[in-house]
Structures are given as structure tokens and as C-alpha cells.
Amino acid sequence: MSMILFACVVRVRDGLPLSASTDFYHTQDFLECRRRLKTLALRLAQYPGRGSAEGCDFNIHFSSLRDVACMAICSRQCPAAMAFCFLETVWWEFTASYDTTCIGLASRPYAFLEFDSVIQKVKWHFNHISSIQMDSSLEKIQEELEFQPPVVLTLEDTDVANGIMNGHTQIHLEPAPNFRMEPVTALGVLSLILNIMCAALNLIRGIHLAEHSLQVAHEEIGNILAFLIPFLACIFQCYLYLFYSPARTMKVVLLLLFICLGNIYLHGLRNLWQILFHIGVAFLSSYQILTRQLQEKQADCGV
User: Which Pfam families did the record assign (predicted)?
Assistant: First the structure.
């Protein structure tokens, strides 16, 4: 029987699964262990770099460094040194294949599906190679484990089903970012273009006024700020439309208020039609931000 049964690569900060080996085991105990592994993945940031969760028939081992962690389900007979040697090998292979930017920007489970075959190959190698052939590697890992033992948990400790840990304490887990915004609409693209145009006009007028007002009295500072603050508000409106942000409604209202007050303050430097144009674009962008919703959570891909 194979000693290493399942392995996956996850992102430490939120437990998002990035890649995993093919799952050939469907016993009830193994599926329960898989469920607990997913729960443990959400809490990896709380633990040191290496750890093990021990159960009756299976053990979960994990090894993390920076923002990437490798996890494995192994049989009870699998030596800890062998499991961590395997995890270290998978970690090096993964980080050599993908840079931190790609890993950080991943937004859906198993985004690096093509790496599954690499995990499968390394798993097969460790399951079928004799321990004598990798004595030197195992000795090195064994020394590290003796010097700095991994944290030891039980599978029951990892169970936080239904938001309850150890049957009592209520906790709140931050889910992996499996949400995506709805597709951008044609009207949304138009609002972005107009918003960028307004931002550019505000920036140009603000800088131009600042260049010619260095020797002028302080009353010009208000006009300069009335151009630059709406400029920043327009840029932030573009960001809120493209990317989801908590408390969107409050932020949208504040940005709209800044743009309206800034343009009203500029009455005299801008005519009525220019002011109405800028305020109209701000209202259009606000409407587009508030109506662009999150898509429903994607189903767990499972491998």
C-alpha cells in the first residue's frame, strides 16, 4: 500500500487550494480526513512552518514557507521524515515553476491544474523508491525535525465544522477568495472611460493652476484642492468598479460627495455645463459600481 496517499499545494494566507494530486481513495475515513485537511488549510497561518495532525488510520502533514504550503495525507506507517522530505520537494518544484505574483493573484481553486502531474510524479517516486536510496535526504530532514519538532495536532483539533471549534468556541474563518465580480458591461466600460477623462481634466487643471499660483495668495489653494481631490476620487471610483471592496456603498457615497462639492466649489472656473458633466459622470460611475455584484461562489473543483 502507498504511504503518501494525497498531496496538495495551498496558499497560506487564505487556504486557497492551488494544485493537488489525483484522489484514488474513496473510503469514508479517507474522505473525512480530506475534509479536515481543507479545514486545517484555512488555519495554516496560525501554525509554525511544519506540523502534523494525527488520526487513527491517516496523518496529515503540512510544510509552509512564505505564502505557499504543501499538505499531504499519509498512512500511519509513513515516517514523518519521509513525509516532510516529500513536502519539501513539492514546495521547491512549485515555487520554481510559479512566481509570487501569479500565486498572489490566483482567485479560483486549483488555478495551477497543470502542476497536478508534477505532484503525482513526485508522489509516485516517494512511494516506490526504497528508503536506502534517499537516506541522505531523510537524515537531513530527520536532524531538522529533532532540532525543531513540528507542531503536533489531532484530527479532532482541526475540525471546525459549522463554525464551531472543539464543540464550543465560535470562530469566524476568512474564506478563500472564490468570489469573482460579474463581467464588465459596455456601459461600465463607458463609465470608466469618462471617469478617466474627468480625472485627467482635473489633474491637468489642478497642476496648471498650481504652477501659476505659487506667488498668489492662499485663496488659490482651495481651487487647487478642488481639482485634485475630485481627481483622486475619480481614480478610486475606477478601482471600486474593477475590484470588490468591503463597505462599497459608504465609499461610493463619500467619493460622490467629494466630486460634487469640488465641482460646486469650482463654479466660476467652470461653467454650468462642465460642472453638470463631471457630476453626471460621477453619478453614472457610482451607479455602475453599486450594480456590479459578486458572482455566486464557485463550486469546489475537487480533484
Answer: Longin, SEC22a_C
The per-residue pLDDT for range 270-295, each reduced to its tens digit, is: 899 999 999 999 999 999 988 887 65
Domains along the chain with CATH numbers: 4-153 (3.30.450.50), 180-294 (1.20.120)
Is the Cβ–Cβ distance between 50 and 151 less than 8 Å?
Answer: yes
Q: Is 108 exposed, middle or buried (0-12, 13-18, 19+ CB in 10 A)?
A: middle
Q: What are phi and psi of 249, to 5 degrees?
A: -60, -45
pLDDT at 150: 83
Q: pTM here?
A: 0.52
Residue with cell 480533484: 303
How many other CB atoms are found less than 10 A from the CB of residue 40?
25
CA distance 233 to 291: 19
Q: Would you say 255 and 233 are in contact if contact means Cβ atoms under 8 Å apart?
A: yes
Contacts of 42 (CB under 8 A, 6+ apart): 14, 15, 160, 173, 174, 175, 176
Q: Pick 98 or 219 by higher pLDDT.
A: 98
Shortest CA distance to 256 belongs to which of 228, 269, 237, 277? Answer: 237
pLDDT of residue 132: 55
pLDDT tens-place string over residues 210-250: 877 655 555 678 888 888 999 999 999 999 888 877 778 89
How many other C-beta atoms can be found within 10 angstroms of the C-beta atom of residue 3?
A: 17
